[in-house]
Design goal:
The structure is a single chain. β2 and β3 form a beta hairpin. The protein contains four helices and three strands. Helix content is about 45%, strand content about 20%. It has one domain (about 1-90).
Amino acid sequence: MRNNIVGAAAIAIALLASSAASAADFSVYYLSDLTQGEAAFVKSFAHAKSVQASINSDPALAASLRAQGVQIKNVIRSAPAFNGRTIYYVK
């Protein structure tokens, strides 16, 4: 439980720090850029099929993600950020 709380706190800090990084309505995080604990936390709540279906149902979002080099088939989770954006986690 403590590891989940620590992981969630680390992700929250990273999100706050990146809130001004882009004008897009989303942020992209790659599991390879997270710590092992953060990546494990993200994977434990992964819902790849449903998030990929949601992305594919929004052509503008799918195009924006692809323009940033994201392969939709590699998105494993989405989560709301504190700034109102959506965060997409990519394996």
